[in-house]
Amino acid sequence: MAGQRKTSDERKELLARQIANLIPRGRRVESQSDYQAVLVTGRPVNHVLHVILTLVTCFTWGLIWATLVLLGGEKREIANVDEWGNVTVARVNGTSGKLIALVVLGVFATGFIGFVILTAIGMALQDSTKSSAGSISPKPAQAPEIVLEVNAEQIWNDYHINETAANFNWKGKRLLVTLQGIDEIEDGGKVRKHIHSSGSNYIQLDFTSNEEVIHLTPGESVRANCKLDGFQLDSWLEFGDCRLE
User: Fold this and answer.
1) Burial code of 27-56, b = ≥16 C-beta within 10 A, e = fewer?
2) pLDDT of residue 233
3) Is the CB of residue 237 less than 8 Å from the CB of residue 159?
4) Which residues, at least 6 apart from 95, have a Cβ–Cβ distance to it below 8 Å?
5) Which candidate in 22, 210, 218, 224 could, as Cys together with 27 as Cys, close a disulfide (CB 3.0–4.6 Å)?
6) pLDDT confidence tier of residue 142, bands split at 50, 70 and 90
7) What confidence tier does 1 reach under pLDDT thresholds 50, 70, 90?
8) How does DSSP assign 26-64, residue by residue?
9) SS3 of 92-120
10) 60-66 average pLDDT score
11) What burial class does residue 213 get, using C-beta atoms within 10 Å of its C-beta: 0-12 exposed, 13-18 middle, 19+ buried?
12) Is the model's pLDDT at 46 over the cut of 60?
């Protein structure tokens, strides 16, 4: 009869029917007593994962995290049957999700503002460094390399007296060398003077360009700025990177 109090079994049956109707709609039972049940929809938010993503993305992910907390996550409802058999389903207003969302938004705002400030400071320091660098007076120009004036045959004699000492004194140095009475001019800018008639011992000047030697003829003397490459295979003395003076 309408308006009569329901028995305990009837109230339990009414609650069971209500739960049976809500479960196909996505609810699941979290807890249940004789006349009351807590129903849950949605899935919990993995806050640990979102903390990591927020840090990795320099707090940019914080906006997505806050949105998921506010719009997603778990929602709870309480289904209740009173003594008259009235079944009510009420949404539970949870404050924890909103609190987490506010915290996340606060962290995002703080991190974003800090990033902007640090970026501005970095740019200011960079501009200051460039300005300071521009105001530094340039270093004085290095003194020109000293070029020693020598005779090629004297260098040859030095190598035959003591090759170690000759290497120490002359090898790798820029020299203003004179080669008297050249014997041949080979293609590739090679100018030679033979020391012995066999032709295996000679002094050679390697010029950087063929154009510098096209006017030379055997018997002439040559004066050139060269770098001494050293005594090669105990046979010839070679000067490289030569330019006529």
Assistant:
1) beeeeeeebebbbbeeeebeeeebeeebee
2) 85
3) yes
4) none
5) 22
6) low
7) very low
8) T-EEEEE-SSEEEEEES----HHHHHHHHHHTTTTTHHH
9) CCCCHHHHHHHHHHHHHHHHHHHHHHHHH
10) 79
11) buried
12) yes
Say which residues have a Cβ less than 8 Å from residue 4's Cβ, sequence separation at least 6.
84
DSSP H helical ranges for 136-194? 152-161, 163-170
- Find out whether 211 and 187 touch, Cβ atoms under 8 Å: no
No. of H helices and E strands in the chain?
6, 11
- How far is residue 21 from each of residues 13, 25, 26, 111, 116, measured CA to CA in Å? 12, 8, 10, 46, 53
Closest CA to 214 of 238, 241, 186, 242: 186
Mean per-residue pLDDT over the chain, rounded:
83
- pLDDT band of 131, cuts 50, 70, 90: low
Tell me the residue type at 15.
Answer: L
